[in-house]
Amino acid sequence: MAKGKGSDQGAKQNTDGIGGKITPREEDYPQWYQDVIREGELAETAKVVKGCMVIKPHGYAIWEKIQRDLDARFKETGHRNAYFPLLIPQSFITKEAEHVEGFAPELAVVTHAGGEALEEPYVIRPTSETIIGHYFAKWISSHRDLPLLINQWANVMRWEKRTRMFLRTTEFLWQEGHTAHSTHEEARAEVERMLNVYGDFAEQVMAMPVIRGVKTESEKFAGALSSLCIEAPMQDGKALQAGTSHDLGQNFGRAFDVQFQSEEGKLDYVWQTSWGVSTRLVGGLIMTHSDDAGLVLPPRVAPIHAVIVPIWRKAHERDAVFEACARIKASLDEIDLSQPRSRYRDFVEVVVDDRPIRPGAKFYEWERRGVPVRIEVGPKDIAKGQVCVRMRVDTAAGTGKEFIPEADFIAGFRGRLDLYQAELLRIARERMETQTVTLDTWDEFLAAFAGDASVFAWCHWDGTAETEAAIKEQTKATIRCVPLPGQGPAPEPGKCILTGKPSPQRVLIAKAY
Amino acid sequence: MAKGKGSDQGAKQNTDGIGGKITPREEDYPQWYQDVIREGELAETAKVVKGCMVIKPHGYAIWEKIQRDLDARFKETGHRNAYFPLLIPQSFITKEAEHVEGFAPELAVVTHAGGEALEEPYVIRPTSETIIGHYFAKWISSHRDLPLLINQWANVMRWEKRTRMFLRTTEFLWQEGHTAHSTHEEARAEVERMLNVYGDFAEQVMAMPVIRGVKTESEKFAGALSSLCIEAPMQDGKALQAGTSHDLGQNFGRAFDVQFQSEEGKLDYVWQTSWGVSTRLVGGLIMTHSDDAGLVLPPRVAPIHAVIVPIWRKAHERDAVFEACARIKASLDEIDLSQPRSRYRDFVEVVVDDRPIRPGAKFYEWERRGVPVRIEVGPKDIAKGQVCVRMRVDTAAGTGKEFIPEADFIAGFRGRLDLYQAELLRIARERMETQTVTLDTWDEFLAAFAGDASVFAWCHWDGTAETEAAIKEQTKATIRCVPLPGQGPAPEPGKCILTGKPSPQRVLIAKAY
Q1: A84–chain B Cβ distance below 8 A for any pair
Q2: Is B344 on the interface with A (CB under 8 A)?
Q3: Looking at A361-477, which runs of residues are DSSP E strands?
């Protein structure tokens, strides 16, 4: 089938790789990922700016859906958005010892501005704990100022050597929550609360199942006491760290002198947290649902829910077909997709594709963009008062071509989307189950991670950084997390898969993006 | 009256100037502006990052309202959002001759990244015509790819010497529209369409009257054929350039080789436009409506529409008062504030201020934050089934303390907000009329712009850059724009106010922010 032309951005945009073809996953998974992004018109590598990407309209619209839903969740949990400077004085980064060690190698540095060399260079924020700590110190003086619950939507920059669209780019878009509390207990509750916001969002909105856990010492955020994470299984068995929530303890409070007077009149450093998700989520979305025909989108992150394709051959059929398309669009437009309790309402988004190209090319294009529902309307359908419906993926929400009375289709549309959303989650969960194994011997382990293979492996580990490093060295698999209660096999003691030393519980091991 | 304490960000944040006092406008207008921002908890100067500001939650929430409304208008006019890299190869900036001349002095330059010196430095985008032009060249090959209608929400950086919060900061947040068309005519229509989107937004949403016009050659965007603008009168008679829309002609198309094949098979450069508004709008909002008691917000940009203050003295009164407050909030929460035809719905946002501080302090704080409606609920009000209402500004929408039956108040709430919105626009328009003068002699002109004074002056100008420069040199006033049809006095010929040479029509002259 030929590449569909006539898109509003045309053919010339497909310059990232081979034009039009989507490589099957079995053949070359990384190439498939690039192909889906290109053919779905989500993004392209910037090329002229190292490791950056251009997020194209369809990709950005998915990010906007993600932002909108998450932002409402942050506000419901009491957070308010603010904006802090892009540039950070270089000296700030060095104030927290572990933080500088973690981020210094990845910094982009502004040395000149306004035609002059700067006295002190600025770094482009790789994350904003330091500069926000500086302002928290100005804003907080009393326990009455706490908790302070802030979120920022921003771009950040980390000069990574190996980049991959959405998953790891030198510049990326994200949100970073930063909060300050009067007790460690309260801060820890916040860290868990926001991890659960991420976990719920991933499952309910992205239909992406995740494991919630604690990072090991060597994998935690630079400057944190501990980091919680959600880890999502991709179709190739690798794990994507999809969101993190950090207990910063008093580390940044000490570094930036963020003190408060307690109710008893005692001075103490605040307890801080930070948490973030990024455009990386779009990569996770792709590798959770998409197939060899291209992008697959759960309705709750789909910028367009349905496309209507008019089918007609003879000139005299045209008007009636276009009229029917417009009527169906108008009916769908009215359908409220809001979630219960939402302060903002969303409606169904429908496109009537009336371009003068053949229907097959249109089907092909919208399939690759992951639009959940395709509706065909032709003279026969109109005569029968029906529509021809095809879901992007065959599930209990619809299989093959369905011919449905128009009124029934409209009345059932929201239910159809809800079921499709649930089905994509079910399918992803079932895949996760098949990808998840319990391993007890090193031979099994080597076999599971041979070559480029990966699984979600629950294994015993002796708890040492040496063993963790040795596992990574030998297999490229890493300890993704120590599971939170209910997130893995029930804790029972055992023997480390590599050293045979005692282990209190199994941890999640996988290769990671 | 003492500074209200107990805010969720406390007292320590007010570090930008004298604590708590708002300087009257008559006494010191620039200081009043700083005071309103500080006391309204909108922003503070970053200090540690030259010329930057920190946008605090209340200020950022206003920006979010602005973004949300504008974004819907952009989408309704067929634009889609995308995201391009923050960093631009330095060589890109030099490709368009006027562009580099305009922006080179203000660039911030990244020379090092990932621990190494870069072969070619990057500049932080001061605006994105160049890098977007680069991608447009990849995306456009045929007339079928046109028009290409893109918008970007982003941060940009211009290393300005003199900065002022919101009005001019080295980093600022904005949106930049970038479009490509197959004919100059179509591009010009886009330039006008988007100027009208800005003008309508300013008047309908921000209640800020504007004059729509054309920039002179010396004031136009660096690299444009011509620039349209909206100019808003501030309370001190100065003008704020609140939005611009540029006809880029084929200048960037030539510089970045953005060619397309026309229907006739001929190769030609695309015709481009760009248009933007920024966080500067928040400064314009402040200087359009606020008074000596602090911030005043039109409902359509107010993050919080009403605050409910419980009034009680005796412990046994507490429960009934809090119950009534919760009931009123629940009723107001349900009120849909959406505009007709909006794809997204907004609801009334209400805060019950139940902090254990005295009501007077609460009144004072919410007044300074510009919340349109204050509601007091005490035992007597409950007994009478009424609420005590006070609007932030006395207008036809409400004057002084009003005692209104609760049900009537709820039923009339949206109407009250709509009227208050209309009243703020009416007041601003009336002020603009008193600030607008027609001047015909140079003596009148010198008097009108003596010292720090400014008015919106309609004057004849001989059309030369020399005269324009001489006017600026002698009075600091500048030609803000040549009015579009219907935006100023009807065009009639006259004599230049400075040189006496012939002039085809009057132009708008004012001092500018």
Answers
A1: yes
A2: yes
A3: 373-377, 386-391, 402-405, 436-438, 456-460
Q: Give how far A426 is from chain B: nearest CA, Å.
A: 30
Q: Is A396 helix (H, G, I), strand (E, B) or coil?
A: coil
Could you write out the DSSP letters of every residue in A63-127? HHHHHHHHHHHHHHTT-EE-B--SEEEHHHHTTSHHHHHHHGGG-EEEEEETTEEEEEEEEE-SS
Q: Which residues of A touch B92 (CB under 8 A)?
A: 48
At residue B129, the 3 state secondary structure works out as helix
Identify the pLDDT of residue A98. 87
β-pairing, A478-483 vs A108-113, is unpaired
Alpha-carbon Rg of chain B, whole angstroms? 25
Tell me the nearest-neighbour CA distance from A80 into chain B, angstroms: 6
SS3 A125: coil
B109 touches chain A (CB under 8 A): yes
Q: Testing the interface with B: which of A3, A54, A123, A132 to mutate, by most B Cβ within 10 A?
A: A54
Buried b vs exposed e over B150-159: b needs ≥16 C-beta within 10 Å?
bbbbbbbbbb
Q: Is the pLDDT of residue B232 over 50?
A: yes
Considering only CA atoms, give the Rg of chain A: 25
Enumerate the residues of chain B whose CB falls inside 8 A of the CB of residue A175: none
CA angle B468, B473, B475 (to 5 degrees): 95
User: What residue in A sits closest to B81 (Cα-Cα)?
Assistant: A57
Residue A148 has its nearest CB partner, among B9, B84, B157, at: B9
Instruction: Tell me if chain A has a CB within 8 Å of the CB of B155.
Output: yes
C-alpha A94/C-alpha A451 separation (Å) is 39
Judge contact between B214 and B226, C-beta under 8 A.
yes
Whether the pTM exceeds 0.90: the reply is yes
Of B50, B83, B138, the CB nearest to A55: B83
A334 class by beta-carbon count within 10 Å (0-12 exposed, 13-18 middle, 19+ buried): exposed
- Token pair of B473 as six digits: 């040199």
Number of neighbours of residue A174 by Cβ within 10 angstroms: 18
> In the 8-state DSSP scheme, what is residue A28?
-
What 8-state DSSP symbol labels residue A26?
T
Q: What is the DSSP letter of A417?
A: H
Q: Do A108 and B88 touch (CB under 8 A)?
A: no
Taking the C-alpha atoms of residue A233 and residue B315, their distance in angstroms, rounded to an integer, is 56
Q: What is the structure's pLDDT at A99? A: 86
Domains, chain B, ordered by start: 57-287 (3.30.930.10), 299-430 (3.40.50.800), 439-510 (3.30.110.30)
What pLDDT digit, counting tens, does each position of A103-139 carry? 999 999 999 999 999 999 999 999 999 999 999 999 9
Q: Do A13 and B48 touch (CB under 8 A)?
A: no
- Whether residue A64 lies within 8 A of chain B, CB to CB, comes out as yes
Residue B112 and residue A109: Cβ atoms within 8 Å?
Answer: yes
Residues in B touching A82 (Cβ below 8 Å): 54-57, 60
- How is residue B455 written in tokens? 């008015």
**A48 vs B61, B89, B346: nearest CB:** B89
**Straight-line distance from the first to the last Cα atom of chain B, in angstroms, rounded to the nearest whole number:** 32
Interchain CB contact of B134 with A (< 8 Å): yes
Give the whole-angstrom CA distance, residue B110 versus residue B113.
8
How many CB atoms neighbour CB A423 within 10 A? 19
| B112 and chain A in contact, CB less than 8 A | yes
- The DSSP 8-state label assigned to residue B336 in this structure reads B
For the stretch B120-153, pLDDT in tens is 999 999 999 999 999 999 999 999 999 999 999 9
- Report which of A268, A74, A289, A95 is spatially closest to residue A181, judged by C-alpha positions: A268
DSSP H or E segment with residue A149: strand A148-157
ipTM of the complex: 0.95
